[in-house]
Write a structure and sequence with these properties.
disordered N terminus, disordered C terminus, 8 helices, alpha+beta
């Protein structure tokens, strides 16, 4: 059975690309907002990220996001990228994948949000994003896609899960992730959902 992302229509009920209201090519005047809306380019996801996945033993084009980054186990490819990097948001060691990227061909202010399931394969996700850019004439180096697995600090997600299970405060009150706020801050009802 084909994944919803492999559909030639690009968008299904489970996979939605949303266009952000902000510019993709520069830092907004509010650096904190820009930091929260940093996203990887389609070019980066389709080349460097996919190459990293394929070159990792046990992973392939058909690997799911769950397989690429199992939050129940040791750091996978996504957390490894920021393992020894200080997070620009909270100043703690362990940064989001996107916070480790440099250069406008790889990272910029989000122009789109991809809503998907971690059970989709990276190949289907990449094929969908590339198809979207090709069919709409968007430059993949300037189409920046906000995806939770790359843009939410997965180190903090793991710590929060441990905290929730144990009742301990790993990072204190400021370390908690409010997922509704994480998504709501970036994407509001005025953003355009592509058909």
């Amino acid at each position: 059975m084909a994944s919803p992302l492999s559909s030639p229509d690009l968008i299904s009920d489970d996979a939605t690309v949303t266009t952000a209201a902000s510019s993709a090519t520069g830092c907004s005047s509010d650096g904190n907002n820009y930091q929260k809306r940093r996203a990887a380019s389609v070019h980066h996801i389709a080349t460097e990220f996919l190459d990293q996945v394929i070159s990792t033993p046990g992973l392939s084009h058909t690997s799911t996001i769950y397989e690429i980054e199992n939050l129940q186990g040791p750091p996978g490819l996504i957390r490894q990228r920021g393992l020894d990097v200080v997070c620009p948001v909270d100043g703690q060691k362990g940064a989001a994948y996107v916070d480790c990227l440099e250069g406008e061909d790889h990272v910029g202010e989000a122009t789109h949000m991809l809503s998907y399931a971690w059970s989709y394969s990276i190949g289907d996700i990449v094929d969908t994003l590339v198809h979207y850019c090709t069919s709409t004439g968007k430059d993949p180096r300037r189409a920046y896609v906000w995806m939770c697995c790359l843009c939410v600090n997965q180190h903090r997600v793991v710590l929060q899960k441990k905290e929730d299970r144990s009742g301990a405060r790993v990072l204190g009150g400021s370390g908690r992730i409010d997922f509704f706020a994480e998504f709501g801050f970036r994407w509001n009802p005025l953003d355009i959902c592509l058909p």
